[in-house]
Amino acid sequence: MLESLWVWTLATGLISIIGYLLGTWTHDHFSKKNVPHLKPVPFFGNMGSVAFRIVSLPESLVDWYNRLKGHKYGGVYEFLNPIILLRDPELIKMVTVKDFEHFVDRGVRISEEVEPLFGKGLFSLKGQRWKDMRSTLSPAFTSSKMKNMFVLITECGKQLTDFLEKCINDKNMTIEGCKIEREGNILAVEMKDLFTRYTNDVIATSAFGIKWEDDDITAQVALFFLAGFDTASSLLSFASQLLAMHPDIQSRLQDEIDQTLKVDGGNLTYEAVHGMKYLDMVVSAPHINILFTIYLLINNFLDYVIFPFHKSPLVSLYNLLKAIFVLSLVIYVTETLRIYPPIGILERRCVQTYTLPAEPHYTLNPGDFVYIPVYALHHDPDYFPDPEKFDPERFSDENKGSIKACTYLPFGSGPRNCIGKKYLLSV
Ligand code: HEM
After folding, report:
1. To which H or E segment does residue 187 belong?
2. What is the distance in A from the centroid of ligand 1 to the CA of 319?
3. What is the arithmetic mean of pLDDT over 394-416?
4. What is the pTM of this model?
């Protein structure tokens, strides 16, 4: 009896020691190199609260970022994997722009064999294959192509307006699939659902509008859906929410809109949209197209459709959509993307040995990862005072000059940034 107790104790002790060693064997990586880092937990590293879904990864990055304050970069452990978290905007610029050749790849761990469609997408492609595909795709985003697309996209808006019109007028019609409910003469619309369907439709139409032929290109189109519809619909939903929560800003915007519409005789054309003052600012063309179609929607009949906000001190969707549309609203969109960047983290994978130009001089080897904490930078009071405040004026002509490079990164940075953004700049 005593003997078997000994055996059990010994076995448990041995298993615990082996378990501990297995769960910590990489966790001295940064201390050995004198790199500032966060204390890891066996097996989980610094990912415990993310693994148990207590916080999201971007939230966790805010915590890491704050705990590493005072350092230009620091080390964290993604389970057993040591990862460098870049904090300093200058360092971010070096890695993503100046020394990009050392960090051509993103950290996507999806293999082409397991997931051929996503694995072959521009987002996941590596090295030379990424370069080739990026230069193949870039000409698809020229202004003449955009104009062709524009016609197709406005058709999406018409279809949506037809559908909504039917929902209002035909009281017997059953609305299936969409999250729209009828409350007397009012349609209660779930905005994220509406915008997701809408952006999906827009991207599908644009993608077919370009007429892709090759198999590899089909993978890119599939990726455009993934990359585009959730980001764009999140942006539109967040923009609606922020404007609804800030009636003062909304009414200022409304005045600007009314003035713009007066100049254009109530009609906005593709050229007028693209000729607008703030267009050189950061917003992607798919959004402009989306916004234009929303404008058509408003112009046709949204006057009839009062959405749930109408009785509250907030605003009707009519005003919201109108507000979202007008391009002087770029600063509003830009500020929305600051507060709620749909992609809160960037990742780069080292492909050529690289020594970080900061103290201590840590050397990254091929296969090592770096994280760039977009969400945390956007909410850092050193770069954006009173960061939780929705203040589009931060991006006005007068103020935008004081925004430090590489602290505002909703579309990423360097040659591997969002192709959707490039899409805009080429128009
Ligand atoms: C509000 C909307 C959008 C946001 C905030 C957004 C943001 C981003 C970000 C942060 C990245 C990573 C950049 C980096 O690592 O430096 C990215 C990559 C990408 N985005 Fe977007 N995006 C949006 C819409 C779109 C749309 C509509 C498309 C479709 C044309 C698109 C296509 C892509 C592709 C293909 C990549 C990978 C680029 C590459 O690896 O070369 N995005 N996007």
Report:
1. strand 186-189
2. 28
3. 91
4. 0.81
